[in-house]
Amino acid sequence: MRGLVERWPGWRFWLPLVFDGDAVPWYATRGGAQRLPTREEHRRGLRSTVHADTADALEALVKGQDALEQVLTGEGVMKKPLLIRQ
Fold first, then answer.
1. Residues 24-65 pLDDT 10s
2. Residue 31 in contact with residue 5, Cβ under 8 Å?
3. What count of Cα atoms within 13 Å lies in the side-chain half-sphere of residue 37?
4. Helix (H), strand (E) at residue 56
5. Exposure of 28 by Cβ count < 10 A (0-12 exposed, 13-18 middle, 19+ buried)?
6. Cβ-based neighbour number of residue 62 at 10 Å
């Protein structure tokens, strides 16, 4: 978990205290989010929270969200970032 936090400081990583099923899902939520994704951003795949069955799969999703945010910004779909960048 520590490695994820260090590599992705704009995200908060967590495991649920209670879960159903065999796999414990890993979660990441955009920390310090200024706003939620717009309807169009969400339609295009941008999420405030993502989850996966493993830490590696979760990191891949976070990388994908970061890349998607760059694409949407470049295309003019995003006018303001979701995260406060320091």
1. 689 999 887 778 899 999 999 999 999 998 999 999 999 999
2. no
3. 20
4. helix 55-74
5. buried
6. 19
